[in-house]
Amino acid sequence: MTAVEQNLPATEQAPKTIYLKDYAVPDYLIKTTDLRFEIYDGETVVSAMLQLYRNPAAAQPATQLTLHGANLELVSIALNGKILGEGDYQFGDESITILNTPEEFTLITITKIKPEQNTSLEGLYRSRTMYCTQCEAEGFRKITYYLDRPDVMSEFTTTVVTDKKYPVLLSNGNLIDQGEQENNRHYATWHDPFKKPAYLFALVAGDLSCIEDTFTTCSGRDVTLKIFVEPKDLDKCDHAMTSLKNSMRWDEEVYGREYDLNIFMIVAVDDFNMGAMENKGLNIFNTSCVLAKPETTTDAGFQRVEGVVAHEYFHNWSGNRVTCRDWFQLSLKEGFTVYRDSEFSADMGSRTVKRVEDVTLLRTAQFAEDAGPMAHPIRPESYIEISNFYTMTVYEKGAEVIRMLATLLGKENFRKGTDLYFDRHDGQAVTTEDFVKALEDASGFDLTQFKRWYSQAGTPRLQITDSYDEDAQEYSLTIKQSCPPTPECANKLPFHIPVAVGLIGSGGDLPLALKNAEPDFETSDNTYKVLELTEAEQTFVFERVFEKPVPSLVRGFSAPVKWHYDYSQDDLVLLMSRDSDGFNRWEASQQLGLHAIQEAMVAHQQGQSLANWQVETALVEAYRNVLRDTSLDRAMVAYMLSLPSEAYLSELADVIDVEAIHCGRAAVRKALARALRPELETIYRAYDHQQTYAVTAAAIAARSLKNVTLGYLMLLGDDALIKQCESQYRTANNMTDVMAALTQLVNSDAPLAQQLATSSLDDFYQRWQHESLVVNQWLSVQAMCVLPGTLQKVKALQTHAAFDGKNPNKIRALIAGFCASNPINFHADAGAGYQFLADQIIQLNTQNPSIASRLLTPLTKWKKYNSQRQSLMKAQLERIMAEPDLSKDVFEVVSKSLA
Ligand code: TRP
Ligand code: ZN
Q1: Domains held by the chain: number
Q2: Probe residue for ligand 1, chosen from 277, 286, 850, 887 as the CB with the greatest number of ligand atoms within 8 Å
């Protein structure tokens, strides 16, 4: 009898919760892992030879061994050469237990799997023309019986045997053997000298082409670099290769980390659940995160490739050489690696721009997560399905926590700390506690209170007030902190929060002298200070302040908090033009824009028409100054001009008024467009559309400002401007400008624009139908159209040849594009969007649970809407909940949302 047959009866009870407090070391460890994959059409035979030994650290010597295994057909199992019979082992829920196991033994299992039928895209599966794997977090158990947990690290040797129609056979480490076999078959054997957990295992077999380069490491070793893609994509690999070499150099220079194998490979795969995966020496990437060329890829796409290539490369140290003890420690590798890749991108392009982008993402998606039913600390205490915890919180907030540590310790101490961490824990599977301890030991800092960031969820609030004593020439800032309750904890203890500040006087930044403070030798800049907030309420007094200043607060977004200070409009205008902190100039522009939008929202709620809405002159003048300020980075001007997004406005609201947000924001934008038309047209016209495309920070900035002005001008509905936009669509030499123009045409309700949108969309599809990633952009621009009738179009596109309901990138472009990025339409029509999303989730629940669960996010936020929407959204969650055979992924998110 096979495991599949044994496990057939579906278990009726709810999936079980795994707790951090229950962590126990494994009973057995695996010295070596020898794998052999015989891949045939329709079926793959996996032979695994494991050298097992009792873990000396286990509480008591074990006499049985439970291995993970899911959807495996067991052919045979042998212990020390003896084939085991039915009484020697038992099947459990996704596991097998071998009875009477000795101190040390060799286990050989032979199992069969069906990669062609694996639609979950975890384990070994087929994507288009190739076989590939995805093992993080718990995919290896779908390949063979194993101790599939990150604290079991083993030395892997892997042989892949296939028909020669798959000429390229890859796995981790170095190629040690290859050759021919009978029946037109061949094999390759790879050996990885570094011990690793199973989640870092990878295998690829396919008909692939590659570009090749070399990198000479700081100690003079030559490393071969290869990027493998389907032959049709060979012209889109150069940017990824450049990014890889830049990453390798940067990690040597900034963290002292050298690459350790003789070869580093990247493979691009079209069907992939996430962005990319850091498998040792063999990174596997979603095509969307590797392929790039100007004709097909937007600037955002280029930057994403650079960032993801760096991210996965940096994991070689932060994740692979030092890995996680258990999955509760996920942020140990992810938060740290996101911090590393964002600093890399800051160094490659513009630091302030990168910060604005990261903070925007954090403040919309992560803050919303922290305020919803799935809120969890960056180190969660429990989970049902670990795939649900690859979240904004673990990644993005996790990176902010590392950033705060770097801010508090200072550059030198932080580097000493990371050196000690890598040195002390090389080859180990460790915890976030170990990371913080290394920083403490290297720097002498006490981070006891700081560690609350790891255990308490929720976004802290800072209420900041000030007073100026003219006689004493003292200025004081009082900061109160609080944190709303989250599912795991009602009463939060105060956080240790670095609050970076400056004081702006009539002549610019004032020197800062903190009363009763030791002189600060570390910073040469005495106009910037990091205040350490540790109590619920604290007052900081500055002396020798000769005029009443305007405070520049939480500079560079020094902590992931929501803060409030009662600025006047004049204060914000001053900060917007004079703050020496570029980030806070943008922050001031956002707060100004926010006030203006909130006024329009109130008018909308009171039933006033917003048709000819006017904004205050002061606001117009502030933006006019920004447009004229040639000293400002063009990208920053673009971001300052982009008012707070609907997602951010929703996050700030207690009850989200979808229509007021959409209409209020649109009205303010239109008012600005009317008032600033000459300046906007000057910028648009000054742009040379024929210049050769470059992906430098300056060129990206110029395009982004020009396209923001195009967006404003298109609000005016003027035929000449619409024609100009269509001409940009037709003549642009790069995808950024093409997509910007197409997006504007699609979203304008002017009759001429609609007519041109239809013809341009047809033209676009004709032109790009054979470029899958470009087709995704075509799908998402339509899915995100704010005009009425979009849901019908989305449904029609589901049956279009361009769509493939099994491909995660297509699902993200069309379904998530509509449900997660088009609020005005998703929430329209008495819940039609909710029902549509629930239908998709029910279908994906069996096909690809991890994608199904991710798609659910918009419905989980139901408590933030009015009561009518609440009941409609809740009804769809209940409908999903009532489905038979819910995956753990979907069950966890839906049940927590309804709790
Ligand atoms: N570790 C990957 C990263 O770089 C994340 C990842 C890729 C992943 N594929 C996955 C996580 C599949 C879960 C499931 O961030
Ligand atoms: Zn990662």
Answers
A1: 4
A2: 277
